[in-house]
């Protein structure tokens, strides 16, 4: 996962995932504009193993986090990966995925749990909690948040993603989650993950504390 090299920055060609554009509008009589990104909506799933009382996370290299760890003066040349090791871009997240198939959001969530975490959950095991807007400064895409409980018997695959994804499955106890939430940071997890953990600690954790 951390074997990253030959890093450099180039212009963005046409992309199936990110489409930059400018929105022009008039607000209170004043002409304005705002630069935005069109991206896919997504799902995110809290996966809690009730057999061993462990939260299931995924860890992966996130280029956006890595890029923002590089000093601006060093971005215009090949990146020195000794000065900026790949570990700077490793994020701990909930299982998640973009909505880019003609499936229901529950079916996409089920698929992501199997591919990333290795658990074969039923559609009825997935409980929709809420939906919210992410990246409201530049994208405002909709993410739908699910919760599911799994057992060791439901682990049918290794997990770790598909195609060229490099994902590590990570487990944490409830005390470890609380320690993470109370960390002074910076925490290399998206706000949606921290929101999900706070939701879990508020609504579910007491049932599984030892």
Automatic annotation (TrEMBL):
Q: What class of enzyme is it?
A: hydrolase
Q: What is its EC number?
A: 3.6.1.45
Cofactor entry? Mg(2+)
**Residue span, Nudix hydrolase domain:** 38-194
Q: Which reaction does it catalyse?
A: UDP-sugar + H2O = UMP + alpha-D-aldose 1-phosphate
The record's annotation in InterPro entries points to:
NDP_pyrophosphatase (IPR004385), NUDIX_hydrolase-like_dom_sf (IPR015797), NUDIX_hydrolase_dom (IPR000086)
The places in or outside the cell where this protein is found are: Cytoplasm
Where does this protein chiefly localize?
A: cytoplasm
GO function terms (MF aspect) = metal ion binding; UDP-sugar diphosphatase activity
Q: Which GO terms describe its biological process?
A: nucleoside phosphate metabolic process; ribose phosphate metabolic process
Q: Would the keyword Hydrolase turn up in this protein's UniProt record?
A: yes
What keywords are annotated for this sequence in UniProt?
Cytoplasm, Hydrolase, Magnesium
| Record flagged with keyword Manganese | no
Q: How does it assemble?
A: Homodimer.
Q: What does this protein do?
A: Hydrolyzes UDP-glucose to glucose 1-phosphate and UMP and ADP-ribose to ribose 5-phosphate and AMP. The physiological substrate is probably UDP-glucose. Poor activity on other substrates such as ADP-glucose, CDP-glucose, GDP-glucose and GDP-mannose.
Q: What is this protein called?
A: Uridine diphosphate glucose pyrophosphatase NUDT14
């Amino acid at each position: 996962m951390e074997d990253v090299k030959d890093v450099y920055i180039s212009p963005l060609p046409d992309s199936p995932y990110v489409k930059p554009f400018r929105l022009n509008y008039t607000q209170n009589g004043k002409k304005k504009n705002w630069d935005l990104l069109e991206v896919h909506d997504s799902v995110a799933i809290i996966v809690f193993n009730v057999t061993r009382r462990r939260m299931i996370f995924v860890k992966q290299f996130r280029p956006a986090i890595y890029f923002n760890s590089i000093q601006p003066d060093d971005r215009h040349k090949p990146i020195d990966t000794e000065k900026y090791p790949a570990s700077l871009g490793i994020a701990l997240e909930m299982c998640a995925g973009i909505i880019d198939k003609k499936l229901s959001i529950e079916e996409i969530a089920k698929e992501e749990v199997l591919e990333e975490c290795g658990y074969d959950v039923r559609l009825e095991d997935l409980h929709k909690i809420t939906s919210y807007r992410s990246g409201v400064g530049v994208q405002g895409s909709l993410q739908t948040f699910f919760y599911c409980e799994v057992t060791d018997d439901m682990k049918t695959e290794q997990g770790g993603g598909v195609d060229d994804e490099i994902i590590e499955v990570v487990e944490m106890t409830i005390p470890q989650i609380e320690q993470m939430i109370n960390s002074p940071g910076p925490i290399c997890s998206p706000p949606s993950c921290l929101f999900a953990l706070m939701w879990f600690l508020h609504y579910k954790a007491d049932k599984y504390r030892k």
